[in-house]
Amino acid sequence: MKNIRFNQQQTSAIGIGTWHIGEGTPNESQHQMDAIRYGLDHGINLIDTAEMYGEGLSETLVGKVIKDYPREKFQLVSKFYPYHATEKLIETSLKKSLQRLQTDYLDLYLLHWRGDTPLIETVTGLEKMVQAGLIKNWGVSNFDLNDLKELSQLKNGTNCRVNEDLYNIGSRGIEYDILPWQKQHQMSFIGYSPFGSDGGAYLNIKPILKEMAQAKHITVHQLLLAWVIRNHDLLSIPKTSSVEHMKSNLEAVDVSFTADELELLDQNYPKPNQATSLETI
């Protein structure tokens, strides 16, 4: 497994996303647990979840898997609702997540998106959780550039380790300003939904993707994931519900592109030439 520098440590080139995981039948949940185990057994060392995912069902399923693994061997990321972003409710939500995940701490705890609670109050609450040893570090999700700049001006705001935003070949707006700003400020980036929404429903699959995937003897999904991680400077967290899909994701890590191929993809899915509104799912 190739590694990248993420959260100031060596991390697998892809993580494991868990949106909608644990919400189906017992048989489906078993397949999902098998997939997560396969990923952990084959070099992936980061799992991303959230209290929102199935209202705790995702965290519960992940907890059943990770209890069988040495905790120090992987990073665990979860996220909390913006209406749980006060000092008191952060602690309450965190402890519930830890209980579902069957662990004593999180490596990263993220504000899922910005709400009405003043950022300074959220930062204060997160710093207290670091001091209490319940989280190692914290971050944010679905923040645009103005949000990040505002956060950086607050007391302890520069302790934010990560921002997680939508990123795939059809949603490239972050390349114009957010990614450069985060690199400048040594803040790691997580890109979610590399295939678009569920099943790639909203991502326009143009003929070039099918043609290039066929030429490379890979699937379109593998091509999309390989493109997202092409620069080895950010983490992508594809959701994986079966061992077959996990194997496919792992194989995508070794896919590379020529300069001509990347230029051709840029022609069909242009990189941004100006600031755009942050896209979210």
Distance, first to last CA? 29 Å
* CATH fold description: TIM Barrel
Major sheet: size, sense and barrel closure?
8 strands, parallel
Q: Nearest-angstrom radius of gyration?
A: 18 Å
Q: What oligomeric state do these chains adopt? A: single chain
CATH superfamily: NADP-dependent oxidoreductase domain
The percentage of residues in β strands lies in 15-25%
Instruction: Supply the helix-strand structural class.
Output: alpha/beta
The total strand number stands at 10
Low-confidence spans: pLDDT under 50, at least 5 residues? none
Number of helices: 10
Described by the principal axes of the CA atoms, the overall outline is globular
Number of domains: 1
CATH architecture: Alpha-Beta Barrel
| Global mean pLDDT | 96
The residue fraction in helices comes out at: 25-40%
Q: Could you spell the SSE succession in H and E letters?
A: EEEHEHEHEHEHEHEHHEHH
Q: Which CATH class applies here? A: Alpha Beta
Enumerate the strands of the largest sheet in spatial order, edge to edge or round the barrel: 3-4-5-6-7-8-9-10
Protein name: Aldo/keto reductase
Organism: Companilactobacillus suantsaicola
GO molecular function, one term: oxidoreductase activity
InterPro entries: AKR, NAD(P)_OxRdtase_dom_sf, NADP_OxRdtase_dom
